[in-house]
Design a protein that fits this description.
Blueprint: H1 12-24, H2 38-49, H3 53-62, E1 72-77, E2 83-89, E3 94-99, H4 113-120, E4 138-142, E5 145-155, E6 160-165, E7 170-176, E8 185-189, E9 195-199, H5 216-219, E10 222-230, E11 235-246, E12 250-256, E13 264-270, H6 286-289, E14 295-302, H7 303-310, E15 317-319, E16 322-325, H8 327-332, E17 336-342, E18 345-350, E19 356-361, E20 366-371, H9 372-380, E21 386-387, E22 393-395, E23 401-406, E24 411-416, E25 421-426, E26 431-436, E27 441-447, E28 452-457, E29 469-474, E30 490-496, E31 503-510, E32 518-522, E33 537-538, E34 543-544, E35 555-559, E36 562-570, E37 573-575, E38 578-582, E39 586-593, E40 602-606, E41 611-615, E42 619-626, E43 631-636, E44 649-655
(dicuprio-$l^{3}-sulfanyl)-sulfanyl-copper binds at residues 135-136, 184, 346, 412-413, 453-454, 516.
Length: 657
């Protein structure tokens, strides 16, 4: 009876019961009929639904009965949707979408003054972006451990970084710098979240100006921005942030050093050939031009000294409002080193002890394990094998690695468990490879259903990974679910990693853009609030709003800048419930949900005016718009808040001007 091998605690009794049912209860049941005897029903259900013992074992490890909560939260990027997805593990139930880079109607995100200001923080060349290409979430850390306080995430297309506060799961800030025109090595945080790292992907003239592409080598550059995080304020401080100019290679993923390598930052790159396409103009296509060299470069940045240099007079330039350490200064000060890395590398992942770096090349079958001690020794003794076109010293590859391990076709990203193992996603093969970090030996492979990109293991990129669970984030769920037309959902596959052999536990379609990366954190590290207290909170500033309205103080005031409506929401009434304005007047709605009960969320909309707010208990929102259409516009509450919810309504009357 070896059918159930469960690593999850607390179900062993049930497992035994089911094992007994399967072994003894199924012999005399006619096909297709449910037994009334409890001992037979499981076996019968298995038969009816065509489930194997492995299926039942997997189900037992993920099924979460009503009222029981998940052990982990997974925060996954929402890809092209620009929203963050909160998922419970092991149930794989979706708990929330958090509006981040794109408007999110349910939360009223992007439909009111506060959230518009957040989205406005990410304006590019004066324009508010309403879509994002979200890639890599990073949880805030203390001492290299997730602390459950904040989450950062990047938008690759528009080089934006967002800050989400996990006390209420609300996006508080978006920052961007026109220094760079895209990002990919983002977001990664230093072990105490002093800095949030954002490096560019596609080189461009720094600051966003035009330069002919023929001048690529001279005028185009990459850059890395170190956004300073102010933990007390819970916000990035652009004033104390700085950047470093990088050669015009295509910088890829990055990681921050920890423990042994704390204070250093590592960034991969490809296209060290500096190919820029132009097939119609007689050039090689970018993808083949960019794959000529056998080696690309890993960038090694001395963040501690870079921070010092960034504060010295005359050592930086200001470009697009960002303080930048020029490449020349970085070279003089020894802030940047390169080391070869095999063919088109993608992921760079630091081991939990911070002593080694795992780099995987998309066009290589190996993972390469660099020793931080060796790299540091080479840097200290200035042992270079040469310099690149831009004068950046290159460390000798052979002297910097401990070894390589044959993984398979197209290794990408690596995560770690609590037993000294590493897990690497293998894109072309569609597998997850498990290997021992100590012996560089392959232990096994788990087939995943289709193109796997990132993988995420429980706290798998911290100084103390948990093991237990891993999610393979597969792109394009061909053939896995009921068909929904040519545009395919993504597929998250939950894999148990507590036993020697990995076990596929669950398939979860994700009906959004390509998620890329996620973070998985123990649920008990988070302690989100239930209500905003006291009532009248501006949830973006996290302060009591100056426009907060108290019961009995509701009013409508005409001021030089328009009509101010001070409104309260309480089950089941908006006060005032009639608003009269003249066509052309500017309207300022100030709405406070004055309730303090956990189940007292209201919503507010005025039809045809594209106004929507979510009013959680105690929340205050401001909405400003011009009453440019005359007419009779009902407004109402959009959350089914009470038996008289439908009656929670009123009229917005716009008289002809
Ligand atoms: S990168 S898998 Cu941002 Cu690997 Cu997508
Ligand atoms: Cu308030 Cu429905």
């Amino acid at each position: 009876m070896n059918f159930i091998r469960i690593g999850v605690q607390g179900v062993s009794g049930l497992a035994l019961l089911l094992a007994a049912a399967v072994s003894f209860g199924c012999s005399s049941q006619p096909k297709g009929q449910l037994s009334s005897a409890p001992s037979g029903s499981v076996a019968n259900l298995m038969k009816q639904r065509g489930l194997s013992e492995a299926d039942v074992s997997a189900a037992l490890q993920t099924y979460t009965p009503t009222g029981k909560k998940d052990e982990y939260y997974t925060f996954a990027s929402g890809g092209h949707g620009g929203n963050l997805i909160v998922i419970g593990v092991p149930s794989m139930r979706i708990l929330k979408y958090v509006g981040v880079f794109t408007p999110e109607p349910w939360q009223g995100y992007g439909y009111g003054d506060q959230s518009n200001e957040v989205l406005g923080g990410g304006k590019r060349f004066g324009k508010t972006m309403t879509w994002g290409d979200m890639h890599h979430p990073a949880l805030s850390e203390t001492g290299g451990e997730y602390d459950g306080k904040f989450l950062f995430v990047n938008d690759k297309a528009n080089a934006r970084i967002a800050v989400i506060d996990l006390h209420d799961f609300v996006t508080k800030q978006i920052v961007t710098s026109q220094l760079i025109q895209s990002d990919h090595g983002a977001t990664f945080v230093t072990p105490n979240t002093e800095y949030v790292v954002e490096s560019s992907q596609y080189p461009a003239p720094l600051g966003g100006s035009y330069a002919p592409i023929e001048e690529y080598k001279d005028k185009y550059r990459g850059a890395v921005i170190f956004w300073k995080f102010d933990r007390d304020k819970g916000r990035i401080d652009p004033e104390r942030s700085f950047a470093m100019e990088l050669p015009p290679y295509m910088q890829d993923l990055s990681d921050a050093g920890k423990l042994a390598s704390e204070g250093w930052v590592f960034i991969n790159s490809f296209n060290t050939e500096m190919s820029y396409g132009g097939t119609l103009e007689g050039n090689p296509p970018m993808e083949s031009g960019a794959s000529q060299n056998d080696m690309d470069y890993l960038h090694i940045i001395d963040l501690v000294n870079a921070e010092r240099v960034s504060k010295e007079d005359g050592k930086t330039k200001t470009i697009a409002g960002m303080k930048v350490i020029p490449l020349g200064v970085a070279n003089e000060e020894g802030l940047l080193h390169l080391v070869g890395e095999p063919k088109s590398p993608h992921g760079v992942d630091i081991t939990p002890d911070g002593k080694e770096l795992v780099v995987s090349g998309k066009l290589d079958t190996h993972a390469t394990i660099y020793s931080w001690e060796k790299l540091k020794g080479l840097i200290d003794s200035k042992k270079y094998e040469g310099k690149d076109t831009y004068g950046v010293p290159i460390l000798p590859f052979k002297d910097s690695i401990r070894g390589q391990i044959e993984i398979g076709l197209g290794p990408l990203h690596t995560q770690f468990d609590d037993k000294g193992n590493a897990y690497t996603s293998v894109f072309i093969e569609s597998t997850v490879a498990k290997w021992s970090v100590k012996d560089l030996k392959l232990i096994g492979k788990q087939k995943v259903h289709y193109n796997v990109g990132h993988i995420v293991a429980a706290e798998g990129d911290t100084v103390s990974p948990d093991g237990g669970y891993l999610i393979a984030m597969n792109k394009w769920a061909i053939d896995r679910f009921a068909k929904v037309g040519p545009l395919l959902p993504q597929n998250f596959q939950l894999i148990g990693i507590d036993n020697d052999e990995m076990q596929l536990l669950y398939d979860m379609p994700l009906p959004l853009g390509e998620p890329h990366y996620a973070q998985m954190i123990k649920a008990d590290k988070l302690d989100p609030i239930d209500i905003y207290k006291p009532a009248g909170m501006d949830v973006v500033t996290d302060e009591h709003s100056e426009f907060a309205v108290k019961a009995k103080e509701e009013r409508i005031e005409r001021k030089p800048d328009g009509v101010h409506v001070y409104m309260t929401a309480v089950r089941s009434h908006f006060t005032p419930d009639i608003i009269r304005v003249k066509k052309g007047e500017t309207v300022h709605l100030h709405i406070t949900n004055v309730e303090q009960a956990h189940d007292a969320t209201h919503g507010f909309t005025i039809g045809s005016y594209n106004v929507h707010s979510s009013l959680e208990p105690g929340k205050h929102v401001d909405v400003t718009f011009v009453a440019d259409k005359e007419g009779t516009f009902p407004f109402y509450c959009t959350e089914f808040c009470s038996a008289l919810h439908l009656e929670m309504a009123g009229y917005f009357l716009v008289e002809p001007g």
